[in-house]
Amino acid sequence: MSSLIALWAAARSAHPGRWAKGFALWTTLTTALATLPVGRNKPSLPQILKRAFFGKPIATKHAHHERLSVFVGLPVFASDALSSVAYASEAILGVLVLGSVALIQGQLWIAGAISLLILIVAFSYKQTIHAYPSGGGSYVVASANLGPRPGLVAGAALMIDYVLTVSVSVAAGVAALVSAAPQLHSFLVPISCGCIAIVAFANLRGVRESGALFAVPTYGFVIGISVMVVVGLIKGLGSAGPVHQTVLADPGTIGKEAMFPLVFLVLRALAAGCTALTGIEAVSNGVPAFKAPEAKNASRTLAIMAALLTVLFLGIGFLSQRLPTISLYSTHNPEYRTVVSQIAGWSFGAGSFGFFFIQAATAAILILAANTAFADFPRLASLLARDGYLPRPLARQGDRLVFQNGIVLLALASILLVYHFHGELDLLLPLYAVGVFLAFTLSQTGMVVHWWRSRETGWQRSILINGIGALATGVVMLIILGTKFLEGAWIVVVLLAVLYTAFRWIKSRYASITSQLATGIRAPARLARHTVLLLVPRLHAGIVKSLDYATSLQGNCRAIHVAISDAGVTQLKKDWADIGGPVPLVILPSPYRSLIDPVLEYVDQIHEEEAEEVVTVIVPEAVATKAAHRFLQENVAAQLKAALGSRHNVVVTNVRYFLE
Amino acid sequence: MSSLIALWAAARSAHPGRWAKGFALWTTLTTALATLPVGRNKPSLPQILKRAFFGKPIATKHAHHERLSVFVGLPVFASDALSSVAYASEAILGVLVLGSVALIQGQLWIAGAISLLILIVAFSYKQTIHAYPSGGGSYVVASANLGPRPGLVAGAALMIDYVLTVSVSVAAGVAALVSAAPQLHSFLVPISCGCIAIVAFANLRGVRESGALFAVPTYGFVIGISVMVVVGLIKGLGSAGPVHQTVLADPGTIGKEAMFPLVFLVLRALAAGCTALTGIEAVSNGVPAFKAPEAKNASRTLAIMAALLTVLFLGIGFLSQRLPTISLYSTHNPEYRTVVSQIAGWSFGAGSFGFFFIQAATAAILILAANTAFADFPRLASLLARDGYLPRPLARQGDRLVFQNGIVLLALASILLVYHFHGELDLLLPLYAVGVFLAFTLSQTGMVVHWWRSRETGWQRSILINGIGALATGVVMLIILGTKFLEGAWIVVVLLAVLYTAFRWIKSRYASITSQLATGIRAPARLARHTVLLLVPRLHAGIVKSLDYATSLQGNCRAIHVAISDAGVTQLKKDWADIGGPVPLVILPSPYRSLIDPVLEYVDQIHEEEAEEVVTVIVPEAVATKAAHRFLQENVAAQLKAALGSRHNVVVTNVRYFLE
């Protein structure tokens, strides 16, 4: 059976084409018949399953990326940013509805302010692209220019926000699905967690950042929303002047002006809308992926992205005011529909092809945005791990050339978040964007310092641009923090502090290890004193091989029998007299029937006499060749190792013998 | 903190008295203050927790039982048998109610037949006591007289029935509780599982079979039920002749005579009532525990037990017919009350002290009956394991002198059963008693063969008694199997077959191991060829110690560096030139970034040249002294060992170095 699976895996990897499954099946069966005998070191079942799930290993030398044109680069880097228009307008409206219906009509002013912010940030990042053509993520820029601590803050902020990108994007994508198929509303959490698991799985296999995968949903979304905006505008042209709009909301929601002062509500709506800016920094992280001239192409991509983002965002904001009826229920309410789905329903007609196309494209680009975080988070974690701020395993690439530990970590964290907030978008959004804007601010401030130090041609102009960027994003970050603090932003602040502390603790721990291991490097010396203890439960063929090994080690060799019961001791003594040769047999009584404790006591006795004596304990271990036989054996070596605790100068050696 | 716990554990074990907790607390705190520095090899936190939970180890030499008089022996061995009167009458009525109300009035005939059966079985076992004064369980008697296979069948049947004893007794005990406190009805499963866990835990600590523990509930139950019967009889004397009884049952239950022929129903009621006989064999298993003359005392205990059992059983049966109203709902129904509780309510008055006393005593003796199975099952499993029919770990006594693996196994199996049947007594009962009567039959048949072979004085009379016993129990077993088969007894048959097959498979496996290890025992020879490979990730102080060790082994020593990335290789080569001495450094490329695979390939290469070359792979391992530091380290040795698979002639050695 297991060899059949192996053959199937082999046949599949030899014929990786999409339509080659049938051929692979044929090959599997024929090869199975042709080559029934299998080699001695055949792969184990877990190995085979791993291969079948994750594909065959990829060699390090095959690590390369296709270079991207602007046309292909746009979907690859812009899906995260563009997808945020799917929820940003809705987030603004969700805050304004707390005020009054009149306040909702003023939303375009806020959308305008955010559009301005988009342009400022895009301009700022254009500078970063030219200054860091090898990729200038916030962690890199902040570390290089502001020092390691601000760099760590930026790193922590980004890690938190990547988790939120996954949770928010998936929740918004599922919201788009639910708006098209309301009967799915009760399955928010399982569908969202399932989506995260699928994206994580695809990334563990190693998704190639291929143009087609990204191009279809991204351009589909851009074109779909554009057409929707145009159709909506034409339809809306009939009614000039402000429309009378019926607003549906959860009972007791509207008219909380008494509770929240107007200024606070406006600022909070602005903060909510700033989720539109998430993902805008992606291009500057990935400059080297573009075709030459890299910086110029990246810069052009960024400009197109910013323009599209502004247009789509303003278009959706404008149309949301033209809807005769707009429902702004909380996600919790089964009547909840996304604002985009309401606009699509109004523009194209409910149940039309256009309506379903918009929902599908929205869900697709949002899942893609989550996928982007699955590429970015593990890469950032690996940078931090390489610098010693996170455990080393996060810096290790698996055999599919992906940072698998980072992928798993991100999937678990975002599933936890989705689960905790019941997959409800309006509970997740308040946590979002704090981290992004903190990273923006640190990155732009870093750029200001960069220009100040470099004094390149035109440094004054560059300082001005990045200075405005830093100031604007900094002020917005404070607004976000201030207005969303009690709603959930405090969680981000706490996590930030925890992560920052963890980074520094791990760094100091690794530094301590390095310094401990740096002293005392010297040429090797032979051991002055060495005792070899061979554990002998009874005399059999497996023991003889171990005894060969024990006597061959340089050292004072003794056989040890732990006498749990008196039965067998006499027989063993007699047997040992025949074949033990020069090795004496020591019987250790075990009043409490433990196999391990008497050995430890004996080792301690030896060390009491001479602490520097190195004691090698040889544990013969039976290895069953069939898995079904394995549970009849015990692993004494592992028990012994665990029980050794902090005893120095004890070496555990495992000599294995084989059972058919 | 952990040292505080250690001190507390030490203080508690130094002052084991019941009232010494306060003194122990005082000692703990004072000693903690007095002796803050702790030794190098202080016990680990898990060890301390283990001690705190399970108590300090008990030495093998303290393994003795107090010898029991008849007065103390009765509760110890009879609780299982006597407790079955709590559900046996109810089981009979539960079947008869399927017929007609008139049929219910005939139950005393069935109770009479069962009482006769009790006397026959008790007489039979009296013979076993005298023939096997060292303890004659069914497994022992059947194996000795009928051969190993019938012995195994008896063993399997008993193991299954011990699991059922726990499940049924606990379910019946909880039913008694629920009859007194109906609001607990929705918590049948958690309460039952909790009871099993508590009993298992007490047995893991090692319950002393102390007289007091058993005497109070058992004598309490016997006296309580006796008083109840007497009070009920007096109350019932007023109304001579048959009483008109109102029978309450689940809708659609009564009057299924059309579906079930009368004879079938009567036989099935008989089968249901045979649960009264469970546990009757306990005395004959434990003869050596009695005071001298052992056989005589045991025999007397058995006689008293049989008499009490008959009287209580008939008394309850009779009174159940005198109740003006009897409810025979299924356990599932929240209106369900045990028959004993209805009798107690009628005799003593609902809510009276007598009523609650009966419920409490019933629950207590039933929990005690479960406890008996926790003593018997692990002992039987250890016998089977000692004979090679079950994995050896089941034969090992833990440091509290209990067969801990058997206890855990029994607890898991019975919890599974209770969980599967929702803790409902009437679903569990049909599975019960098949195994018991199979074991009875095999044991009695074994006794017949025993007498035939021994021809002791009076063997003819003995053969007659055991022959009648074997015949009666055999016929009853067939009746039980036939009438309960579809209701659940088939599960027991399947389990019996599975267990029997497993016993034989394990035996053959151990036999194969023994024969494989018996050949090739010879005097040790020094290894002709030995290569030592030292894994070197980079050069540090921990590696130097390992290098000392590696060079001290007799063999051809090489250092191995797996180059996952090129970084560090140049530095390592330079460092090695300085201190490597005679040991060459081999750089293994790792195109797929695996740490393990290149080592395995290198080992395979060596073996291709010379298969008999013994290769020792030395894995230096960092040991963090603080648990919080541990997650930053990886265990390469375990990974390597797992990956070695069935490669021969490879030894894995773990040299540990320590980090503060």
Provide a quick synopsis of the model.
Chain A is an alpha/beta fold. Chain A has 3 domains: 2-54, no CATH class; 60-511, Up-down Bundle (Amino acid/polyamine transporter I); 530-659, 3-Layer(aba) Sandwich (Rossmann fold).
Describe the structure.
The first copy, chain A, has helices at 2-14, 21-34, 45-54, 70-83, 85-96, 101-105, 107-131, 138-146, 148-180, 188-205, 211-237, 262-273, 282-285, 294-322, 339-348, 353-386, 404-420, 425-428, 434-454, 459-518, 541-552, 569-579, 597-609, 627-630, 636-644, and strands spanning 246-248, 325-327, 530-535, 556-563, 585-589, 614-624, 650-659. In chain A, the strands form 2 sheets. Chain A has a 5-stranded parallel sheet with strand order 5-4-3-6-7, sandwiched between helices. Chain A folds into 3 domains: 2-54, no CATH class; 60-511, Amino acid/polyamine transporter I (Up-down Bundle); 530-659, Rossmann fold, CATH 3.40.50. Chain A contains 25 helices and 7 strands. At the A-B interface, helix 20, helix 21, strand 6, helix 25 and strand 7 of A face helix 20, helix 21, strand 6, helix 25 and strand 7 of B. Strand 7 (650-659) of chain A pairs antiparallel with strand 7 of chain B.
Largest chain-chain contact?
A: A-B, 86 and 87 residues
Total separate domains of chain A: 3
| Shape field of chain A | elongated
- Class derived from helix and strand content of chain A: alpha/beta
Distance between the termini of chain A: 19 Å
Work out the strand percent of chain A.
5-15%
Helix content of chain A: 55-70%
CATH topology of the largest domain in chain A: Amino acid/polyamine transporter I
